[in-house]
Amino acid sequence: MAGRTFNRDNYTEWLRPVSTRNTHEISDAELLYADGTRAQLLDVIKLTLTQAEPLYHQTENHVIAAVQWEKLQEAQWNHVTAATETTTSALWHDGLSSYHGLNDKVPEAIAHTLTNSLMLIEPQTLSLVVAQESKFMGGYDRRIRAAFTYNDTHYNFVVTDPWIENKYFAMEDGRYDIPMSRLCLSLPEILNGNATKLVAAVITPENVAERRQ
Fold it and tell me: Residue 9: pLDDT band by 50, 70, 90 thresholds?
């Protein structure tokens, strides 16, 4: 759960709500509004924070207060495009790849020099690839990856968007081209000496509405 703050349609800094638990995760109960519905992607939310709690490159982390969240409205495609960022540099750092990925890893030493861990970008091209992947300790996992280009550089990141997983895991393995999209990229905490880039959300003009159904 993360998003960009805004005031009168001016989008400013990123914010990632975290808890005081060791895992920093927000619980299911904390995601509930007063009417019992659950906070979801593209909700515009009012929430109360107690303090900033950056963790290395995750400078966006802020601890939530024990105050129920309030849903103000639902963002539309025009809000998504307005919040999109541009950069002419690498997506944090290029040149290191996992076995199945491409330009998807950031060494710990470099990650500690970074000042952000979230981006919303418009890829030049995007395909969602559904396939079985071998695991390091044996066996296979079915995964969805985003194979995309940005600034004429090729990337391949694992997709963790639950809505996309539900939709594409119900389909056959294959490559699905997406003509227009925005990708929310996330750089998680360090694991085994690297931070592995992820696609936290795949947003399209069509699924902005489909996610509400």
Answer: low
